[in-house]
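Re: that chain you flagged

S.,

Sorry for the slow reply, it's been a week of failed gels. I finally had a moment to sit down with the sequence you sent. For the record, here it is as I used it:
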Amino acid sequence: MRSMIRSTPIPQLLAAVVMTALLVLAQEHATQADSNPFDTLLGSWRGSGQIELDGGRMERLKCNAYYTGGGAQLGMAIRCQSETSNVEIRSKLSQSGGRITGTWEERTYNAEGSATGQATSDKMSLQISGGGVTGTMSVSCSGSRQSVAIATQGIALKSVTIDLTRS
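Prediction finished late last night. Pasting the structure tokens below so you have them in one place:
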């Protein structure tokens, strides 16, 4: 072993170590850059949250969320129930280079329109509009936990906040 170390000049050994470190860093960077925000969400989720209705009335929610597709496409279905209300949000989204476009609908309040926004590896931020409704939707994901926040204007549903875990 000593003869191999002595026979390899220090500059060559140092160069080999640096090259190996650079290759490892380049692979890690490529893996992080290739992580797709839609793929992170795929599957079934469940949890609870809160709904705010016209007049400031708040109610607790029990929710299930389902995400299908992957790659550049994402289908989203979020269904929630409270004592007096239901929320059912559906979206079909496409993403390219971190930009999101697609459609959304809220079936209980009979609202639908377009969705546009941005995505990173752990967060999706959307602006929704159509049929007299405007709003925002944010979906953040970390491991097996997910948070959804929705705010709207133009319908009786004012906001929804949900914390979900993979089921």
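What I noticed first: The chain has two domains: 2-34, 37-166.

Talk soon,
D.
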